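Hi L.,

You mentioned the student needs an example of a multi-chain input paired with its predicted structure. This one should do, with 1069 residues in total across all chains.
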Amino acid sequence: MPELYYKSAADLSRLLASGEISARELIQSVIDRTQNVEEKVHAFLRFDPEAALAKAAQCDERRSAGKSLGPLDGIPVALKDLICESGQGLTCGSRILEKYVSPYDATCVAKLKENGTILWGRMNMDEFAMGSSTENSGYQNTANPWDVSRIPGGSSGGSAAAVAAGETIAALGSDTGGSIRQPASLCGVVGLKPSYGLVSRYGLAAFASSLDQIGPITRTVEDSALLLQAIAGYDTLDSTSYQADIPDYTASLNSAPKPWKLGLPKEYFEEGLDPQIRQLVEKVIDFYKSEGCQIIEVSLPHTNLALPVYYVLAPAEASSNLARYDGVRYSHRSKQANDHVGLYFKSRGEGFGPEVKRRIILGTYVLSSGYYDAYYLRAQKVRTLIRNDFLEAFKQVDALITPVSPTAAFKIGERSGDPLSMYLSDIYTLSVNLAGLPGISVPCGFNSDKMPVGVQLIGQPYREAELLSIAHLYDSVHRFGMEHPVL
Amino acid sequence: MPGKTEIDIDYVADLARIELTEEEKEQFSAQLVEILNHFKSLREVDVSGIEPTAHPFPLYNVWGEDVVEPGFTTEEALANAPAQRENQIVVPKIVEDA
Amino acid sequence: MEYEAVIGLEVHVQLKTDSKMFTRAASRFGEPPNSLTNPVVMGLPGTLPVMNKAAIELSIQTGLLFGCRIAEVCKWDRKNYFYPDQPKNYQISQYDQPICIGGEVEIELPGPARNIMGEHRMVQLTRIHLEEDVGKLTHFENESLVDFNRAGIPLLEIVTEPDLHSAEEVSAFLHAIRLHMVYVGLSDCDMEKGQMRCDANVSVRPVGSDTLGTRTEMKNLNSIAGSRDSVAFEIQRQSRLLEKGGQVVQETRRWNAEQGYTVALRSKEEAHDYRYFPDPDLMPVKISPAMLDRLAREIPERPYDRQRRFLEDYGLPFSTASVLCLDRQLADFFEEAVSAHDKPLEIGNLVANDLLRELSSSAGQGGGKMSKLLIKPGQIAELVKLVEDGVISKQIAQDIFPEMFHTGRTPSLIVEEKGLRQSTDAAEIESVCARVIAENPKPVEEFRTGNQKAINALKGGVMKATRGKANPAMVDQILRKLLA
Ligand SMILES: [Mg+2]
Ligand SMILES: [Zn+2]
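Structure written out for the whole complex:
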């Protein structure tokens, strides 16, 4: 059967269940595809075909014994290299963890294993998830499969590019300010950032603890629901984890569409937005209108503060979270140090790349004596205002429609010298993290360069089921995520 | 918040325990000043009476019962250690800096 | 010029939990290095803290014990600094919302003699907060070794106001903290095991002055004697310095316990910039009135209150009362015995002397624990009653105590079995007395020539011959009759 590697997880699940294909055939197809295109895409930091084939054989045995572990049994899933998998390396895209092997599974990884997925490869990323282009990886640049001279977005660039290139069926990324949704949009696939706390952070190497969320990158919204079903849920190992039962996301996808009220936050459509992207997003709005949804303009007045708030809070938390990479217990140890203080300076100086250093310095500065109130505390208060804007809007509407990124994928190297312009590529996604909301990026077409563009739907806290069915209404008709780049 | 943003890069790098080259120091200082200046809108917003958000959906008393669960063997604990001796991690000479 | 000292202490005390503060790895002492860890203790990437409910409860009880105000809500902050014993390079602690606020600790100064109680007074606390302990470093010539077993053990930091004024008060304060916390079972406070450590801030000022002098700080004092001696040294050093017109430099000094002096650390003495901020990985603690009530009900009568009551209600000597009130179970045991038979002095003696002696001599074999005692309070009461009723002598009572302790058998059973009942048979006693007089001409001669004390040797002979069973009063009476 041709091109198994380009099918959706849901379709493959049905083919596996009916016995039309085996898990071995499926992973072999993905392995072959990866071996064909990876030298152009550079999405993987590591992958192990032998191990994947062995796991697939186990899936097939289980299935023939009538002991299938469910719809994801045998589906290849790739992991961003900051999600811990027992016995596997974990670099976080950083040289400082070049030799580190995780002795334990992240909660979401344990759940994927329970669901029988074939954990297939460790994906490239911006170092410690700091970046929007995957150019900050300590190892390699990942290319956008739609145009290998362009960036795939970031920081989950490897995950998104691999899904787009057919090198995996689905992937997990992490999203602190847009790091799932933006690369998904730039690579033409679906990226979901769940509500804060819906997916356990245990085993996700922390960037900014109050913003980080793990989420799926897939080809369809239906696949997103399938993956979320597997990884969501309360975890006693994460004190910030959401304490409630998880609904059946896939079952509710196809329930009859409701005449949803959808809001357009006017601040998201002002200057700076590429006109082609605006047009594509407007076509999405027209679709929902045609489906009987009511479109309402709303205002999120503190939107312009999201960037400064984010770039105070995230680096501050990161400066503390990344203090553990010190050369003492497990990370890179410099050979140049004479004493313990030198060990810190040299190991960290050698191990971290420039963007990570820049953000640690920024974060350390805003927390340092005399500046805490002016920056960190103030940013936490403004965060409250930003969240309140959303909660206010949700009194009128069920979800919001916005662009994901102000531009489509840019050329590799184009913005790397200018951190501020790079930071601006996240302006439509940051607020969602600050407010703890679910947001999904759904492919909605291509620009004149044939580069993919995504639309963002933002839902109410912990109402992923509703958000997914709104997104599925559009995606099940358009299926832009199923289109393939030529590689 | 200070009117004119300046960064004592040596002091901050010292707190963060990161060795920076002279070029990095210059580049980072300039970039951080630019970034912080871009944040002046943060200074202008009225936050009087606003509670800070530490967690978007706060909970209280998320705790575990005091029941021991199995942990690492010594070997597992030290598996990633760059240097070890007598089941302990070796670090270079500690200089007293109070 | 006369100087007075002003001293503030920060005392770190490990709480007695089974698992660590923010993860369920075991919390124990004396295990092989790095054998009590897990991914969270080692600060591995991706790990997250989860509070230990028991540690919160023990902290609240500590606060209640010392009369603190318990916060309705407290939260966790990260204290950021790099040190090799600290796995994450930040310590989860409490900065501006500690769990306990204010409070006071009653201290007892040494009396003029062991059996005379010294002065009591209250020392004011600023706060008590909860945090996690760090690992343990062992230093060698060119390298140090790190053991993370201790890392993450729940650690209370008890901070006093600058309310102590002498080395003796420092010692009394540390004794009082240890007494109270061990008494209630909140901590073992074993300073040799690092379960209690003390930082002391010391300054001196001319008597009558109300401004504080420049202070020095001594960190990680690891014994009560060391804390007392280092503070005494520092008070004297600072006073002499000021007398000679010198100035005290604000600095951290290290106590050299072997040589008995403090020395300045070669420190650049920069202000510490810990960059505290609320830990985003943890939720705050809300302490409900119901929880507070429940925990308050478990707080027993405080040991010094009990000591006062023992002195007043039972008329015990201070030396006995103070020994009994060092240990809650011992004091409970005493009171249970007294409730069975109201002879507090006699029972107090047996419990404070004989019972404690047996406990400490069997401590080596693991039998030295109050909780594992075989002997019952009622049996001690019974023993006292047997002496009182003349069934056995005091000597026999002493003799059978070890057997009671080791077997848990009742004294009357032991007395019956061994035939230890006191003999009051006058004819039998008289025949033994006559024999002893006949066999001991020397003391007989001495007694008859006026040495009254010589009769004791004869009495001893009779008691020995009767294996202690003869009624001592009758022996005395009969001997005198026969010698007359
Ligand atoms: Mg302190
Ligand atoms: Zn402390």
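You could point out the following to them. The first strand of chain A starts at residue 44 and ends at 46. Chain A touches chain C through 44 residues (CB under 8 Å).

Best wishes,
N.
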